[in-house]
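Batch manifest line 315
LIGAND: guanosine-5'-diphosphate-alpha-D-mannose
JOB: complex structure
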Amino acid sequence: MDTLVIGAGGFVGKYLLRQLLEEGRDPGATKLPREHLALDGVEVFDLELDNQRNIQRLLMEHRPAQIYHLAAQSSVAVSWKEPQLTVDVNIKGVLYLLEAIRSIEDYYPRILLVGSGEEYGFLRKGACPVTEDEPLHPGNLYAVTKACQSMIGSVYARAYGMAIVMVRAFNHIGVGQSPQFVAADFALQIAEIEAGLRPPVMKVGNLAAKRDFSDVRDVVRAYTALMAKGYAGEIYNVGSGHAVAIQEILDILLELSREFIAVEQDPHRMRPSDVPLIEADIRKLREDTGWRQEYPLRESLQTMLDDNRRRFGIG
Ligand code: GDD
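JOB STATUS: finished
ARTIFACT:
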């Protein structure tokens, strides 16, 4: 094992592992005991990142040269309901990891920390597309924890000379994403309607928000490119560079649907506060790695809808 993906049991981890295998690496992965993960060529370990000892033991035994830290409570919506959990997983988790690495003699892996475009939060007028040096004004607790993670990463890179590259990932979508996120939720609702499992009414939240969506396959290519070519101590935006309103995501999916579907706002899907616009400036990512987006938004949404249709036997 030359590469370890921590928190690989979620949506992004499986795509990242496949990308690493394709690039000829020898990855291992950690997952939560309750998660399922099995991939040919990948050694999988159960790990709760709730103390330093367990991760330290794993790292001492295998000494991976590259570490991707994906383990997180990754939902903004959940962070409103579970603030303590979000802080524990997202802030304490990265500290356990970095301290474990530091405690191992003669061990200097490259580390990629996955933060979020949400860290920027409420931007001043004219700040979009947002560059990496824009001041942060997080609008929710999830964003606060990710901003904190980036700051912790910067401190450890500067103070201890650790090879930490930090990412601010904007919204990503794809097959296998949990329906707690908007595009996966809408695609699932449409397939359920088409399968006759629910009345033809889509439940939606705030459609006015604008977010920068990318296909998860493009996102993991950006991660491996940054692991290879990103500068230690630096932060990189990973997104498409174009924000779209959630209304537009809905419109594309409705256009792809086979039914006439009404739209209804569901108060439970509205958040106490929602940042109006987040759009990435991706020049730094492009210039330092040569990365380019491959999957257009419509194609990603079509793939997600088709996957849901297959699951309901209406493909
Ligand atoms: N989930 C959800 N469900 N969101 C809805 C809905 C709905 O029915 N209707 C509208 N929205 C709006 C939300 O209010 C938000 O403005 C936007 O759709 C996107 O919501 P999510 O898909 O839940 O993602 P997120 O933007 O809160 O967070 C995602 O992106 C971040 C980067 O920008 C996650 O992937 C984070 O992990 C990631 O860091």
